[in-house]
Amino acid sequence: MKSATNKIDLLNGSLWDRILLYALPLAATGILQQLFNAADIAVVGRFTGSLGPAAMAAVGANSPIIGLIVNVFVGISLGTNVVIAVAVGRNHEETIHQAVHTSILFALIGGTVMMILGELLARQILQSLNVPAEVLPMAVLYLRVYLIGLPVILLYNFEAAVMRGIGDTRTPLLALTASGIINVFLNLFFVIVVKMTVDGVAVATVISNAVSSIALLIYLSRTDSVIRIQLSKLRIDGETFWRIMKIGIPAGLQAAVFAFANIIIQSAINSLGTVIMAASSAAYNIEIFAYDILNSFSQACTTFVGQNRGAGNMKRCRRTLTLCLAEGAVCTALSVCVILLFGRQLLSLFNTSKEVIDAGYMRLIIAFVSYIFTMLYEVMAGYLRGFGISLLPAVLTSIGICGVRIAWIQLIFPTDPAFQTIMMSYPVSLSITALMILTVLLVLRPSVKQERK
Question: What is the pLDDT of residue 5?
Fold first, then answer.
């Protein structure tokens, strides 16, 4: 089996350093993706004059909606990741070829369908989230422009999933780094020079995403590795598609439930006014950096376990879980400390209002208290997905996160309608979810059952 230049050998050698080499570029990729949205908010917050807070709120109000759409497909792409990883472990090249071409075509079709539906329903969706009247027109404008780029956004994420499956997280990072630089310059150009507002930063995001996805498509078309794309072979293989969906759909539903819960939270935040909306939006775009770091260890766990399960090395699978939990905890703690140390300065990049900064910093503190639970349940769920167990974590996430947060907003928030009350739903829901996932892991013990077969 030919290998890609940046491929990491996940089946042999020491694990601790290979996990870091795999996870850290993945974390950087997630952070760069989030910087697209953060750059949008920062530019409109600082360079649109009196429209700044409303423009920030407009972009921020779209974060949960965009997160819902994109994260569903990112979750589904985990199916691609696992199918390819297991095939690598078993040295099944034909399965890899089928998974690659099925995934790329699905991304383009899915992105186009979601773009059309989103364009038709954009205003109704935002109205259902209680977006204030003074913010709604700009929020609708931003969403409609952003949705035009959905096909290339989803294409990039499935291309990256293909590469992660063989152990390559560096190439997607390089492509995204280039497009991220383009995004920043285009944001400034459209807003400062052309005098556009939220539509300018949305156009910049679409163009930069197109650059990264096309760059990876060219790379995959020219590589001599097993994941090479041949346009003439782009078709959906039924059996491979089912195997991807068996893992990907529950993972996508898990991501959707998480995003849906955030939409419920965003709706409650919107009811508190423009200042709180702007503060929450700015804080979210900072705290998500730490989340991307811990989530990278979850995805590393999935891929390492998938390949080693395919190769029949259960001891290495268990060792992967232990190391991903330990390394994920250390890296997440370091990122949280840095962000809290410079939190107010970072928030001021989005808006200089003291009210916005104070409310945003309060969100950072409460959110980061929850991250120990987030790290635990994400890595353990990633481990289960590596064994093809995807539905149960999705169901438990629905109960632990979505169910608890909806109940919190419906029952607790009305008794004390404050921003802090909303944010306390995070540690409560995440700790319950982590406990349930841990219980399932201890009961199922998938590596032990695999050894007995």
Answer: 54
Q: Do 293 and 27 form a contact (C-beta atoms < 8 A)?
A: yes
**Cβ–Cβ contacts within 10 Å for residue 372, how many?**
17
Going by C-beta distance under 8 Å and a sequence separation of 6 or more, which residues neighbour residue 370?
A: 426, 427, 430, 431
pLDDT digits 0-9 by tens, 18-31: 999 999 998 888 88
Closest residue by Cα to residue 308 from 95, 87, 89, 84: 89
What's at 430, amino acid-wise?
L
Q: How far apart are CA 300 and CA 407, in angstroms?
A: 33
Residue type, 369: V
Rounded alpha-carbon distances, angstroms, from residue 130 to 19, 58, 139, 229, 416: 43, 12, 12, 44, 19
Count of CB atoms situated within 10 Å of the CB of 1: 11
Residue in the structure block whose two tokens are 């190439």 = 171
Q: What is the DSSP letter of 389?
A: -
In angstroms, the CA 262 to CA 426 distance is 10
Helix, strand, coil % over all residues of the chain, rounded to 5: 85, 0, 15
Give which of 416, 410, 403 is closest to 272, Cα–Cα. Answer: 416
Question: CA–CA distance from 330 to each of 160, 286, 305 (Å)?
Answer: 25, 19, 21
Which pLDDT score is estimated for 3? Answer: 45
SS3 3: coil
CA 368 to each of CA 37, 311, 406: distance values in angstroms, whole numbers, following the listed order: 20, 37, 21
Three-state SS for 90? helix
**Which tens digit of pLDDT belongs to each residue from 242-274?**
999 998 998 888 777 777 777 788 889 988 988
Contact 343, 362 (CB under 8 A): no
